[in-house]
Specification:
This protein is 18% helix and 29% strand. By secondary structure, it is of the alpha+beta class.
């Protein structure tokens, strides 16, 4: 039996950043049974939550850096949330994009460390590509 994803995310956070996270968040995966990008254009859409999820463990930092570790890709990224620039293709571009949008809306951004997993994508047989539509967490 495989180890629960929640435990993997917590253990990886402790290993990478020392100590425990302040928050552990689960965003359920979803599929759109009908409609795509129509919900905000007065069209019909029927999103359904599925039994897969994206997990992120995070904690604030005292400095001005964001540190990420994508467990599935074994990829580390670091950036300054006050100086966001488009980088090379990596899993860090997703949270950087969210940080950019929040900053554009006038929100103050803090530094944080996080471990994140899209591990459930590999639970499908055959495994889904990381850019599949099922990857979209409904909390995004």
């Amino acid at each position: 039996m495989s180890q629960p994803t929640q435990e993997i995310v917590l253990q990886e956070f402790e290993r990478r950043f020392g100590g425990w996270p302040e928050h552990l968040v689960r965003a359920p995966g979803r599929v759109n049974l009908i409609g795509e990008h129509t919900d905000y254009n007065d069209g019909f859409v029927l999103p359904l939550a599925i039994d897969r999820a994206t997990w992120i463990a995070l904690r604030s930092r005292a400095d001005s850096r964001v540190q990420l570790f994508a467990i599935d890709q074994q990829e580390t990224a670091e950036f300054d949330p006050q100086d966001l620039r488009k980088g090379s293709a990596s899993s860090a571009e997703y949270p950087k994009g969210v940080a950019w949008a929040l900053r554009e809306e006038g929100h103050h951004l803090q530094a944080w460390s996080a471990s994140v997993t899209f591990r459930w994508v590999r639970d499908f047989h055959p495994p889904l590509p990381l850019n599949s539509q099922l990857l979209e967490p409904s909390a995004a």
